């Protein structure tokens, strides 16, 4: 591992057709992990490797890939979005350090989105929400964001628009959700990235940004959020491991 870099496991989850695999592909491309962009529609996406996935244009199994940002080595896990394969998704969510929950700007929060949110809260996974497909003529980003703020809640925590990180309203909103953010805001009128990271990883603040994975909008900003705020879980000193998936390669090796 390069010196000074954190290692984090980040998972992408969404209701089917929200653009989850396209976003995973875009993240890998913008981070330089892959040289060519595939398309789910064309059956040549990097993440969907099984024949059934390429033929049907959906993710059936969770898949992993590696990317690197300025401060982090990221294991990216793309999970199934179809409710029929939710058991596969649930196994993957349990081992994440950070999650990206994708919501379509046209459809807003859907039933399976809420199920995924409850699972992420059950497992205590810090979560960033990405409003995708803002390029579509049917997109209503403001309505989708209001839907997210109203529906995806947890205790006293809430979703904050991170596309306006330098604005006073942004700092005020963070201050309303976390005591340490409030103390820092009242002292200096701002909240540092370090304090924001603590609140995010304590599941008090859930960052939200919007964009279009297909058009590469918002992808760099999402990678920057992961780079700044995603943090590895703290474990006890004794070695232990969680096995969430066992696969067999084309030669039959496990």
Q: What descriptors fit this protein?
A:
single chain, 254 residues, alpha/beta, 7-stranded mixed sheet, 7 strands, 35% helix, 18% strand, globular
What is the arithmetic mean of pLDDT?
Answer: 86
Shape: globular
Instruction: Kindly name the structural category.
Output: alpha/beta
Largest sheet: 7 strands, mixed
User: Using DSSP, what is the number of strands?
Assistant: 7
Tell me the helix content.
25-40%
Helix count, DSSP H or I runs of 4 or more residues = 9
Indicate the radius of gyration in whole angstroms. Answer: 18 Å
Walk across the major sheet and give the strand order: 2-3-1-4-5-7-6
- How large a portion of the residues is in β-strands, by DSSP E? 15-25%
Distance between the termini: 25 Å
Low-confidence stretches: none
Helices and strands, in order, run as EHHEEHEHEHEHHHEH
Describe this protein's structure.
There is one protein chain. The protein has 254 residues and is α/β, with parallel strands linked by helices. It is 35% helix and 18% strand. The chain is built from nine helices and seven strands. It has helices at 20-30, 51-56, 86-93, 111-123, 141-151, 168-177, 179-188, 193-201, 219-229, and strands at 6-14, 63-68, 72-78, 98-104, 127-132, 158-161, 205-210. It is globular, with a radius of gyration of 18 Å. The protein starts with 5 loop residues before the first strand and ends in a 25-residue tail after the last helix. 41% of the residues are buried.
């Amino acid at each position: 591992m390069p010196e000074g870099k954190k290692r984090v496991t980040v998972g992408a989850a969404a209701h089917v057709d929200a653009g989850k695999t396209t976003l995973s592909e875009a993240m890998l491309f913008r981070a330089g992990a892959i040289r060519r962009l595939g398309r789910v529609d064309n059956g040549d996406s990097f993440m969907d490797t099984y024949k059934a996935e390429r033929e049907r244009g959906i993710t059936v199994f969770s898949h992993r890939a590696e990317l690197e940002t300025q401060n982090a080595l990221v294991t990216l896990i793309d999970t199934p979005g179809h409710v029929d394969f939710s058991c596969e998704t649930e196994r993957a969510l349990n081992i994440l350090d950070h999650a990206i929950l994708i919501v379509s700007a046209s459809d807003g929060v859907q039933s399976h989105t809420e199920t995924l949110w409850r699972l992420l809260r059950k497992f205590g996974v810090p979560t960033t929400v990405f409003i995708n497909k803002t390029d579509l003529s049917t997109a209503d980003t403001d309505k989708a964001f209001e839907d997210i703020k109203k529906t995806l809640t947890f205790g006293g925590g809430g979703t904050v628009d991170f596309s306006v990180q330098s604005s006073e309203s942004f700092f005020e909103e963070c201050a309303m959700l976390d005591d340490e953010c409030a103390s820092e805001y009242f002292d200096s009128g701002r909240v540092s990235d370090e304090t924001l990271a603590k609140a995010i990883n304590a599941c008090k603040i859930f960052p939200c940004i919007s964009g279009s994975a297909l058009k590469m909008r918002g992808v760099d900003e999402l990678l920057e959020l992961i780079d700044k705020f995603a943090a590895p879980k703290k474990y006890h000193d004794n070695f232990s491991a969680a096995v969430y998936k066992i696969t067999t390669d084309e030669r039959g090796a496990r």
